[in-house]
Amino acid sequence: MSESIALLDVVALTKDAPKKGLVRGQVGTVVEVLAPGVFEVEFSDNDGHTYAMTSLKADQLMVLHHQQVPA
Questions:
Q1: Which of 24, 32, 27, 37 is nearest to 8 (CA)?
Q2: Per-domain residue ranges for the chain?
Q3: Which class in CATH covers the domain with range 10-63?
């Protein structure tokens, strides 16, 4: 993705990660920047319980926006 990903961004998976038990579209939060283009992402349910925490590359993620963003 051309968009920069930062700490605490809400992201969605753009590709399945079957070895990690995750599928495209699942939503998580970036909790650590491990290296350029590599992020620790926490996935939690609606009650706030973490069900997965894993490192993912930028090309596996897209940042989600909850308000209008200039085109």
A1: 32
A2: 10-63
A3: mainly beta
Q: What is the DSSP letter of 20?
A: G
Burial bucket for residue 54 (CB in 10 Å: 0-12, 13-18, 19+): middle
CB 9 within 8 A of CB 66: no
* pLDDT tens-digit readout, 15-68: 999 999 999 999 999 999 999 999 999 999 999 999 999 999 999 999 999 888
DSSP secondary structure letter of residue 24: T
The pTM of the full predicted model, rounded to 2 decimals, is: 0.88
Q: Which amino acid is at 66?
A: H
